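PROTEIN FOLDING TASK:
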Amino acid sequence: MYDYLLIIDDLLTWYESEKRELKWRTNPLPYYVWVSEIMLQQTRVEAVKAYFDRFTKELPKIKDLAQAQEDRLMKLWEGLGYYSRVRNMAKAAKQVMDDYDGELPSSYEELLKLPGIGSYTAGAIASIAYGNSVPAVDGNVLRVTKRLSGSYDDITKAKVKSELEQVLKDSMTTKFGEHGGKKAGDFNQAMMELGATVCIPNGKPLCEKCPVQKYCIAYKKNIAMELPVKPPKKERRIEKKTIFVIEYEGTTAIHKRPEKGLLAKLWEFPNTEGKLTIPKTEKLLEDHGIMEYEMELLGEAKHIFSHVEWHMLGYRIRIQKKTDLLNEIFPELLWVEKSQIEHTYALPTAFSAYR
């Protein structure tokens, strides 16, 4: 079993001098830590900064998040993806208002009871905001620890993560006590920072900059590029789509996606399966009584989700008169001005090429 007590002092010294200055670190309010950690899932720090500032400016407290309208939440989250995250945050905020008098609980176990908060986020909040000696194990920490220990364990297995969490918890408690204060939070952030900036996920790790190189088994054995181990990703499914930007007298048609599934309940431009040629698009419109229009080919675009790729072809269609027949092709259209798309209605990044 690898002894993580070996690295703590050197890692904390390095972190104190090398850490990136971030608002949620400078002022680690529980709400700030929560928002930042949810945003940072699947998203780089540099991209999160502006989102964090905008979100916390508009919704500065948990009660504001609990009271926010869904369309506003989606707009604030637009571009971050994984929209279920912010929906769960809103649910959790309501629960915090009802059950915890508007304050996030400090207990790791209580945090786990809130929607959308798993072991990593609970550990981050409990340690960074409240100073409890509990680990926060994300992909960065898994990568760092498997290289340090020279372990070929499959990091996608829940047992591997839970065993690591217990080992790190024992190490933190031994070093800092049950309540480690700032050092507990700093240790977790230092592990994450090391993984994000030195023991990097893509490409060769920057071992010459590593403060704990001398304790790293992967470095000594020259196997860092073999670790961590995880099974190859499944091939993404390709879906072809035709996107229609339908305009009428300064307004554009949008509609809501289904209640469940990919991008659930978000607004989108009307679209159909497959890539329609110009003649087929003309026939689709004219078969539904739309005769007076101008059509412009907007070209192709691609958007990659975790398990699927959208290969899209877009058309701008300016109609001369609005007709209910459009609803036969695209039900429940909402006609909005461009400024409303910019400021009110959240459209997924997948449609950004056609905005």
